[in-house]
Design brief:
Rossmann fold; five-stranded mixed β-sheet; 12 strands; single chain; disordered N terminus; 2 domains
Length: 323
């Protein structure tokens, strides 16, 4: 059993990454008066209530007008402010994609896009509210790093890094509680995968709410004598090509897990590297090219083969395909 998994099992508390994000945002805003928050009638779901109470003049609520929201944020950035745009990821990336492309990415504008309640976190609200295309939409755009932290600690570290980074980013946050995996002094590095567990038989690559499930899958595999390497690939763009190539060469098989369609997301980004540098058998776990139905996020992840047991089963089958 890995030290990280022991930490999770010894402290099973689940944390909402939105809480870590807004705590960090408020702490940074207290020392940087240029930081402002922009939202689309989502003060509650983005957990910006504390920010609004402290600095009401620095929270701009445009109402349900996502295209305007991104345009306003670009104007604020051009005026010297540091805007964090906080909105449900399905509406931020879907409704305002043209503005993200033209006003943020093309202009390389210093706006921090924060997709809240991403993936299937809205659960029972169904396909209209699932955000399972946002990796694909945003990672296709130049200049915009795409980041999906694995826990509350990495979320806070990524938010701190975002302030120091000059240029746009897309920070993808869930509302589904996850256990903390990292130590409190964890530092986020753009484009660097975290080696969560060593292994030589197969590699499991995950991010967001799937990383802790990948860790438990590795524990299950170890009971069958299979040593699974686990990588937390929180940066989808720029992807850590070096870590992927090393995993392909040293383990010979890769399973990817993501709360996203299997088209254009983490698995696709990993496959683009693998096919170029060292082709090996791969299995991409995610939503298989359909509209994900209504149901809780955890239920849907299990249904799409991403329970710890499902991930372990996919890894076992993939090992049989190794040359």
């Amino acid at each position: 059993m890995s030290a990280v998994t022991e930490q999770v099992r010894g402290n099973p508390a689940l944390h909402d990454c939105r809480d870590a994000f807004t705590r960090t945002l408020e702490a940074m805003a207290a020392v940087n008066s240029d930081i402002v928050a922009v939202c689309n009638d989502s003060v509650g779901s983005s957990k910006l209530g504390g920010f609004k109470e402290k600095w009401p003049e620095r929270l701009i609520n445009v109402g349900i007008a996502e295209q305007n929201m991104v345009g306003v944020a670009a104007g604020l950035a051009n005026g010297g402010k540091l805007p964090f745009v906080c909105a449900a990821s399905c509406f931020l990336t879907g409704r305002a994609l043209e503005q993200i492309k033209a006003d943020i990415a093309y202009s390389n504008t210093n706006v921090k896009l924060c997709g809240i309640s991403s993936g299937m976190a809205y659960g029972e609200l169904g396909p209209t509210h699932h955000s399972i295309e946002d990796f694909a939409w945003i990672r296709a755009l130049p200049n915009v790093p795409v980041i999906a932290p694995a826990d509350s600690i990495e979320t806070a570290a990524a938010a701190e890094w975002a302030v120091s980074h000059v240029g746009p980013i897309f920070l993808r946050l869930s509302r589904v509680g996850v256990p903390d995996l990292f130590s409190s002094d964890h530092k986020f590095e753009l484009g660097r995968a975290d080696l969560m567990r060593e292994g030589a038989d197969v590699t499991i690559i995950a991010n967001g709410v799937l990383t802790h499930r990948a860790m438990f899958a590795a524990d299950l595999l170890s009971q069958s004598g299979i040593a699974a390497r686990v990588l937390n690939m929180s940066t989808v763009r720029p992807i850590d090509a070096e870590a992927i190539e090393k995993a392909a060469r040293e383990t010979g098989a890769i399973v990817t897990c993501e709360e996203h369609t299997i088209f254009g997301g983490l698995g696709s980004a990993v496959a683009e590297v693998v096919v170029d540098v060292h082709p090996v058998p791969m299995k991409m776990l995610g939503v298989p090219g359909i509209f994900a139905p209504t149901g809780s996020a955890n239920f849907l992840l299990d249904e799409f083969g991403m329970s710890p047991g499902g991930i372990a089963e996919s890894a076992t089958r993939l090992i049989d395909k190794k040359a």
